[in-house]
Amino acid sequence: MIRKYDIDTVMDLSDEPILDYPKRFKIACKVLNEGITYEGPDFKFEPHSEYDVMEKPSITILGTGKRIGKTAVSGFVSRLIDEKGYEPCVIAMGRGGPEEPEIVHGEELEISAEYLLEQSQKGVHAASDHWEDALMSRILTIGCRRCGGGMAGEVFMTNMKKGARLANEVDAKFAIFEGSGAAIPPIKTNKKIALIGANQPISNLTNYFGPYRISLGNLVILTMCEEPMASSEKISEIEKFINEINPDATIISTVFRPKPLEDISGKKVLFATTAPEEVKDKLVNYLEENYGCEVVGTTAHLSNRPLLKEDMAKYMDKSDVMLTELKAAAVDVATKDAIEAGLEVVYCDNIPVAISDEYSDLAESVIELVDSAIDDFNKSS
Fold first, then answer.
1. Which of 349, 310, 358, 314 is nearest to 333 (CA)?
2. Given its phi and psi angles, is residue 69 left (phi above 0), alpha (psi -120 to 50 degrees) or beta?
3. Among residues 245, 252, 198, 192, which one has the least CA distance to residue 221?
4. Pairwise CA distance, residues 142 & 160, whole Å
5. For all residues of the chain together, what is the average pLDDT?
6. What is d(CA 243, CA 261) in angstroms, rounded to the nearest whole number?
7. pLDDT confidence tier of residue 123, bands split at 50, 70 and 90
8. Which of 81, 74, 63, 72 is nearest to 256 (CA)?
Protein backbone atom coordinates (compact mmCIF):
# COMPACT_ATOMS: atom_id res chain seq x y z
CA MET A 1 0.00 0.00 0.00
CA ILE A 2 2.89 2.37 0.77
CA ARG A 3 4.34 1.81 -2.70
CA LYS A 4 1.03 1.65 -4.56
CA TYR A 5 -0.33 4.90 -3.16
CA ASP A 6 2.96 6.77 -2.64
CA ILE A 7 2.26 7.14 1.10
CA ASP A 8 4.09 9.82 3.14
CA THR A 9 3.07 8.72 6.65
CA VAL A 10 1.61 5.61 8.29
CA MET A 11 -0.71 6.58 11.15
CA ASP A 12 -1.16 4.01 13.93
CA LEU A 13 -4.48 4.50 15.72
CA SER A 14 -4.60 1.01 17.20
CA ASP A 15 -4.20 0.02 20.82
CA GLU A 16 -3.92 -3.12 22.93
CA PRO A 17 -4.92 -5.82 22.14
CA ILE A 18 -5.16 -5.01 18.41
CA LEU A 19 -1.40 -4.43 18.16
CA ASP A 20 0.98 -5.16 20.98
CA TYR A 21 4.30 -3.33 21.31
CA PRO A 22 6.52 -5.94 19.58
CA LYS A 23 4.19 -5.89 16.56
CA ARG A 24 4.25 -2.10 16.49
CA PHE A 25 8.04 -2.10 16.39
CA LYS A 26 7.96 -4.61 13.52
CA ILE A 27 5.60 -2.32 11.62
CA ALA A 28 7.81 0.67 12.46
CA CYS A 29 10.87 -1.08 11.00
CA LYS A 30 9.07 -1.94 7.76
CA VAL A 31 7.70 1.58 7.42
CA LEU A 32 11.06 3.23 8.08
CA ASN A 33 12.74 0.87 5.59
CA GLU A 34 10.36 2.35 2.99
CA GLY A 35 11.73 5.77 3.86
CA ILE A 36 8.61 7.24 5.45
CA THR A 37 7.25 8.19 8.88
CA TYR A 38 5.41 5.98 11.38
CA GLU A 39 3.30 8.04 13.74
CA GLY A 40 0.74 7.60 16.53
CA PRO A 41 -0.98 9.73 19.18
CA ASP A 42 2.10 10.04 21.38
CA PHE A 43 4.98 8.90 19.16
CA LYS A 44 6.62 9.65 15.84
CA PHE A 45 9.42 7.63 14.23
CA GLU A 46 11.24 8.83 11.15
CA PRO A 47 13.93 7.17 9.02
CA HIS A 48 17.43 8.57 9.56
CA SER A 49 18.36 11.62 7.50
CA GLU A 50 20.18 11.13 4.21
CA TYR A 51 21.59 14.35 2.77
CA ASP A 52 22.12 14.04 -0.99
CA VAL A 53 25.45 15.88 -1.24
CA MET A 54 27.98 13.37 -2.58
CA GLU A 55 29.65 14.00 -5.92
CA LYS A 56 31.59 10.73 -5.96
CA PRO A 57 30.68 7.09 -5.28
CA SER A 58 30.37 6.17 -1.62
CA ILE A 59 29.35 3.56 0.93
CA THR A 60 28.16 3.69 4.54
CA ILE A 61 29.38 1.45 7.36
CA LEU A 62 26.76 1.35 10.12
CA GLY A 63 26.28 -0.77 13.20
CA THR A 64 23.66 -2.14 15.55
CA GLY A 65 25.59 -0.94 18.60
CA LYS A 66 28.84 0.31 20.06
CA ARG A 67 32.10 -1.66 20.43
CA ILE A 68 31.27 -4.12 17.66
CA GLY A 69 34.16 -3.22 15.33
CA LYS A 70 33.01 -0.50 12.92
CA THR A 71 36.38 1.26 12.87
CA ALA A 72 38.23 -2.05 12.46
CA VAL A 73 36.03 -3.01 9.51
CA SER A 74 36.30 0.50 8.08
CA GLY A 75 40.09 0.20 8.27
CA PHE A 76 40.00 -3.21 6.60
CA VAL A 77 37.72 -1.95 3.80
CA SER A 78 39.64 1.27 3.15
CA ARG A 79 43.03 -0.49 3.21
CA LEU A 80 41.79 -3.20 0.84
CA ILE A 81 40.28 -0.90 -1.76
CA ASP A 82 43.22 1.50 -1.53
CA GLU A 83 45.55 -1.38 -2.39
CA LYS A 84 43.26 -2.16 -5.35
CA GLY A 85 43.60 1.40 -6.68
CA TYR A 86 40.18 2.85 -5.76
CA GLU A 87 41.77 5.85 -3.97
CA PRO A 88 39.37 6.09 -0.98
CA CYS A 89 38.97 8.50 1.88
CA VAL A 90 37.14 7.86 5.17
CA ILE A 91 34.72 10.28 6.83
CA ALA A 92 34.15 9.25 10.45
CA MET A 93 31.93 10.78 13.12
CA GLY A 94 32.37 10.33 16.83
CA ARG A 95 31.40 11.86 20.15
CA GLY A 96 35.02 12.95 20.54
CA GLY A 97 35.28 14.32 17.02
CA PRO A 98 36.46 17.85 16.16
CA GLU A 99 34.30 20.98 16.29
CA GLU A 100 34.95 21.54 12.58
CA PRO A 101 35.62 18.66 10.14
CA GLU A 102 39.32 17.86 10.29
CA ILE A 103 41.47 16.38 7.53
CA VAL A 104 44.25 14.00 8.55
CA HIS A 105 46.63 13.11 5.74
CA GLY A 106 47.33 9.53 6.72
CA GLU A 107 48.91 8.98 3.32
CA GLU A 108 51.52 11.67 4.02
CA LEU A 109 52.07 11.94 7.79
CA GLU A 110 54.45 9.79 9.79
CA ILE A 111 51.98 8.99 12.56
CA SER A 112 54.16 7.81 15.44
CA ALA A 113 53.34 7.43 19.13
CA GLU A 114 55.26 10.64 19.83
CA TYR A 115 53.31 12.49 17.13
CA LEU A 116 49.95 11.37 18.52
CA LEU A 117 51.01 12.29 22.05
CA GLU A 118 51.99 15.74 20.81
CA GLN A 119 48.54 16.14 19.19
CA SER A 120 46.87 14.99 22.41
CA GLN A 121 48.80 17.55 24.45
CA LYS A 122 47.53 20.24 22.05
CA GLY A 123 43.97 19.28 22.99
CA VAL A 124 43.27 17.01 20.01
CA HIS A 125 41.42 13.74 20.71
CA ALA A 126 44.19 11.75 19.01
CA ALA A 127 42.45 8.40 19.58
CA SER A 128 39.35 9.56 17.69
CA ASP A 129 38.14 7.26 14.94
CA HIS A 130 39.52 9.29 12.05
CA TRP A 131 43.00 9.23 13.61
CA GLU A 132 42.73 5.46 14.00
CA ASP A 133 41.62 5.13 10.37
CA ALA A 134 44.54 7.30 9.22
CA LEU A 135 47.06 5.30 11.27
CA MET A 136 45.79 1.85 10.33
CA SER A 137 45.07 2.48 6.63
CA ARG A 138 47.46 5.31 5.75
CA ILE A 139 44.85 7.15 3.72
CA LEU A 140 43.23 10.58 3.95
CA THR A 141 40.56 10.75 6.63
CA ILE A 142 38.06 13.41 7.68
CA GLY A 143 36.98 13.59 11.31
CA CYS A 144 33.50 14.80 12.27
CA ARG A 145 31.59 15.24 15.50
CA ARG A 146 28.20 13.93 16.56
CA CYS A 147 26.04 14.30 19.64
CA GLY A 148 23.29 11.92 20.62
CA GLY A 149 21.71 8.99 18.82
CA GLY A 150 18.03 8.29 18.35
CA MET A 151 16.29 4.93 18.53
CA ALA A 152 16.41 4.52 14.74
CA GLY A 153 19.90 5.93 14.24
CA GLU A 154 19.31 9.66 13.78
CA VAL A 155 21.87 11.96 15.41
CA PHE A 156 20.87 15.01 17.45
CA MET A 157 23.58 17.12 15.86
CA THR A 158 26.59 16.50 13.65
CA ASN A 159 28.92 18.32 11.27
CA MET A 160 29.15 15.30 8.96
CA LYS A 161 27.30 17.11 6.18
CA LYS A 162 30.19 19.59 6.16
CA GLY A 163 32.57 16.65 6.22
CA ALA A 164 30.82 15.13 3.19
CA ARG A 165 31.18 18.36 1.24
CA LEU A 166 34.85 18.41 2.19
CA ALA A 167 35.14 14.82 0.91
CA ASN A 168 33.90 16.06 -2.47
CA GLU A 169 36.83 18.49 -2.63
CA VAL A 170 39.73 16.28 -1.53
CA ASP A 171 41.90 14.21 -3.83
CA ALA A 172 40.03 10.91 -3.42
CA LYS A 173 37.80 9.01 -5.82
CA PHE A 174 35.69 7.01 -3.36
CA ALA A 175 34.21 7.86 0.05
CA ILE A 176 33.54 5.64 3.07
CA PHE A 177 31.21 7.04 5.75
CA GLU A 178 31.69 5.46 9.16
CA GLY A 179 28.93 5.43 11.77
CA SER A 180 29.31 5.88 15.51
CA GLY A 181 27.73 3.51 18.00
CA ALA A 182 24.26 2.78 16.66
CA ALA A 183 24.05 6.25 15.06
CA ILE A 184 23.93 6.16 11.26
CA PRO A 185 25.81 8.67 9.06
CA PRO A 186 23.19 11.12 7.72
CA ILE A 187 24.56 11.04 4.18
CA LYS A 188 22.98 9.40 1.13
CA THR A 189 25.42 6.80 -0.23
CA ASN A 190 25.29 4.18 -2.97
CA LYS A 191 25.63 1.04 -0.82
CA LYS A 192 25.77 0.08 2.86
CA ILE A 193 27.62 -2.37 5.08
CA ALA A 194 25.72 -3.27 8.26
CA LEU A 195 27.70 -4.61 11.23
CA ILE A 196 26.15 -6.77 13.91
CA GLY A 197 27.89 -7.81 17.12
CA ALA A 198 27.17 -11.47 17.88
CA ASN A 199 27.85 -10.55 21.52
CA GLN A 200 24.78 -8.29 21.63
CA PRO A 201 21.54 -9.49 23.25
CA ILE A 202 19.66 -11.23 20.47
CA SER A 203 16.46 -9.42 21.45
CA ASN A 204 18.15 -6.11 20.52
CA LEU A 205 18.77 -7.43 17.02
CA THR A 206 15.43 -9.12 16.36
CA ASN A 207 13.28 -6.45 18.04
CA TYR A 208 13.04 -2.67 18.39
CA PHE A 209 14.99 -1.06 15.51
CA GLY A 210 17.49 -3.85 15.04
CA PRO A 211 15.63 -5.16 11.96
CA TYR A 212 15.59 -1.64 10.49
CA ARG A 213 19.37 -1.30 10.68
CA ILE A 214 20.00 -4.86 9.47
CA SER A 215 17.71 -4.36 6.46
CA LEU A 216 19.77 -1.38 5.34
CA GLY A 217 22.87 -3.52 4.64
CA ASN A 218 23.78 -4.76 1.17
CA LEU A 219 26.61 -6.61 2.91
CA VAL A 220 26.05 -7.75 6.51
CA ILE A 221 29.11 -8.57 8.62
CA LEU A 222 28.55 -10.43 11.88
CA THR A 223 31.46 -9.80 14.27
CA MET A 224 32.74 -11.43 17.49
CA CYS A 225 31.49 -14.86 16.44
CA GLU A 226 33.22 -16.99 19.08
CA GLU A 227 32.80 -18.34 22.58
CA PRO A 228 32.18 -17.03 25.16
CA MET A 229 30.70 -13.97 23.42
CA ALA A 230 28.39 -16.04 21.24
CA SER A 231 27.63 -19.74 20.91
CA SER A 232 27.42 -21.44 17.53
CA GLU A 233 23.68 -21.80 18.11
CA LYS A 234 23.28 -18.07 18.67
CA ILE A 235 25.35 -17.26 15.58
CA SER A 236 23.16 -19.59 13.48
CA GLU A 237 20.02 -17.99 14.91
CA ILE A 238 21.24 -14.50 14.01
CA GLU A 239 22.24 -15.59 10.50
CA LYS A 240 18.81 -17.16 9.98
CA PHE A 241 17.10 -13.96 11.13
CA ILE A 242 19.20 -11.82 8.76
CA ASN A 243 18.28 -14.12 5.87
CA GLU A 244 14.61 -13.77 6.71
CA ILE A 245 14.47 -9.97 6.81
CA ASN A 246 17.23 -9.14 4.31
CA PRO A 247 17.42 -12.10 1.90
CA ASP A 248 19.37 -10.23 -0.79
CA ALA A 249 22.28 -9.34 1.49
CA THR A 250 25.58 -11.20 1.58
CA ILE A 251 26.27 -12.40 5.16
CA ILE A 252 29.77 -13.07 6.51
CA SER A 253 30.43 -14.11 10.12
CA THR A 254 33.81 -13.11 11.54
CA VAL A 255 36.13 -12.79 14.51
CA PHE A 256 38.73 -10.09 15.14
CA ARG A 257 42.41 -10.84 15.52
CA PRO A 258 45.15 -8.38 16.54
CA LYS A 259 47.79 -7.19 14.07
CA PRO A 260 50.70 -5.10 15.44
CA LEU A 261 51.77 -2.34 13.06
CA GLU A 262 55.47 -2.94 13.88
CA ASP A 263 57.73 -5.91 14.60
CA ILE A 264 57.38 -7.14 18.20
CA SER A 265 59.14 -10.48 17.84
CA GLY A 266 61.30 -11.47 20.79
CA LYS A 267 59.86 -8.72 22.98
CA LYS A 268 57.97 -8.72 26.26
CA VAL A 269 54.60 -7.11 25.63
CA LEU A 270 51.99 -5.31 27.71
CA PHE A 271 48.79 -5.54 25.65
CA ALA A 272 45.94 -3.01 25.99
CA THR A 273 42.63 -3.70 24.28
CA THR A 274 38.92 -2.91 24.34
CA ALA A 275 38.09 -6.57 23.70
CA PRO A 276 36.07 -8.31 26.44
CA GLU A 277 38.06 -9.97 29.21
CA GLU A 278 36.55 -13.32 28.19
CA VAL A 279 38.54 -13.50 24.91
CA LYS A 280 41.82 -12.21 26.37
CA ASP A 281 43.52 -15.61 26.34
CA LYS A 282 42.65 -16.22 22.68
CA LEU A 283 44.14 -12.86 21.67
CA VAL A 284 47.27 -13.42 23.77
CA ASN A 285 47.80 -16.88 22.26
CA TYR A 286 47.30 -15.47 18.76
CA LEU A 287 49.86 -12.72 19.33
CA GLU A 288 52.45 -15.09 20.77
CA GLU A 289 51.96 -17.75 18.08
CA ASN A 290 51.90 -15.37 15.11
CA TYR A 291 54.24 -12.56 16.12
CA GLY A 292 56.87 -14.31 18.25
CA CYS A 293 56.42 -12.15 21.34
CA GLU A 294 55.79 -12.88 25.02
CA VAL A 295 52.72 -11.18 26.46
CA VAL A 296 53.59 -10.52 30.11
CA GLY A 297 50.48 -8.50 30.95
CA THR A 298 47.12 -7.39 29.58
CA THR A 299 44.44 -4.82 30.27
CA ALA A 300 40.93 -4.62 28.86
CA HIS A 301 40.43 -1.16 30.39
CA LEU A 302 41.31 1.24 27.57
CA SER A 303 37.96 2.90 28.17
CA ASN A 304 38.52 3.33 31.93
CA ARG A 305 41.48 5.59 32.68
CA PRO A 306 41.88 4.85 36.43
CA LEU A 307 41.72 1.07 35.92
CA LEU A 308 44.01 1.33 32.89
CA LYS A 309 46.63 3.12 34.99
CA GLU A 310 46.35 0.46 37.70
CA ASP A 311 46.78 -2.38 35.23
CA MET A 312 49.75 -0.72 33.52
CA ALA A 313 51.51 -0.16 36.83
CA LYS A 314 51.41 -3.93 37.52
CA TYR A 315 53.29 -4.87 34.34
CA MET A 316 55.31 -1.82 33.31
CA ASP A 317 58.62 -2.95 34.82
CA LYS A 318 58.31 -6.40 33.18
CA SER A 319 57.64 -5.09 29.65
CA ASP A 320 59.63 -3.88 26.65
CA VAL A 321 56.65 -2.82 24.55
CA MET A 322 53.26 -1.23 25.13
CA LEU A 323 51.02 -2.75 22.44
CA THR A 324 47.72 -0.90 22.30
CA GLU A 325 44.70 -0.40 20.12
CA LEU A 326 44.11 3.25 19.23
CA LYS A 327 40.96 3.69 21.30
CA ALA A 328 39.73 5.83 24.18
CA ALA A 329 42.70 6.48 26.52
CA ALA A 330 45.30 4.87 24.23
CA VAL A 331 47.17 8.16 23.74
CA ASP A 332 46.65 10.35 26.81
CA VAL A 333 47.24 7.46 29.25
CA ALA A 334 48.66 4.31 27.61
CA THR A 335 51.08 6.06 25.24
CA LYS A 336 52.01 8.85 27.62
CA ASP A 337 52.71 6.63 30.64
CA ALA A 338 54.53 4.01 28.56
CA ILE A 339 56.86 6.56 26.96
CA GLU A 340 57.58 8.11 30.36
CA ALA A 341 58.48 4.62 31.65
CA GLY A 342 60.87 4.08 28.74
CA LEU A 343 58.75 1.54 26.88
CA GLU A 344 58.44 1.31 23.11
CA VAL A 345 54.84 1.99 21.97
CA VAL A 346 53.38 -0.06 19.11
CA TYR A 347 49.81 0.33 17.90
CA CYS A 348 47.62 -2.61 17.03
CA ASP A 349 45.01 -3.09 14.34
CA ASN A 350 42.09 -5.55 14.51
CA ILE A 351 41.55 -7.69 11.43
CA PRO A 352 38.17 -9.29 10.64
CA VAL A 353 38.57 -12.98 9.74
CA ALA A 354 35.74 -15.21 8.47
CA ILE A 355 35.07 -18.00 10.97
CA SER A 356 35.05 -20.80 8.38
CA ASP A 357 35.58 -21.53 4.70
CA GLU A 358 31.84 -21.94 4.13
CA TYR A 359 31.41 -18.15 4.22
CA SER A 360 31.90 -15.89 1.23
CA ASP A 361 35.35 -14.37 0.90
CA LEU A 362 35.26 -11.09 2.85
CA ALA A 363 37.70 -9.22 0.59
CA GLU A 364 35.93 -10.38 -2.55
CA SER A 365 32.52 -9.36 -1.14
CA VAL A 366 33.82 -5.89 -0.26
CA ILE A 367 35.23 -5.37 -3.76
CA GLU A 368 31.93 -6.49 -5.30
CA LEU A 369 30.06 -4.01 -3.09
CA VAL A 370 32.43 -1.16 -4.00
CA ASP A 371 32.12 -1.94 -7.73
CA SER A 372 28.33 -2.02 -7.36
CA ALA A 373 28.39 1.36 -5.57
CA ILE A 374 30.45 2.85 -8.43
CA ASP A 375 28.01 1.42 -10.99
CA ASP A 376 25.05 2.90 -9.11
CA PHE A 377 26.75 6.29 -8.91
CA ASN A 378 27.55 6.31 -12.62
CA LYS A 379 23.98 5.36 -13.55
CA SER A 380 22.55 8.19 -11.44
CA SER A 381 25.05 10.82 -12.59
1. 310
2. left
3. 252
4. 9
5. 93
6. 36
7. confident
8. 72
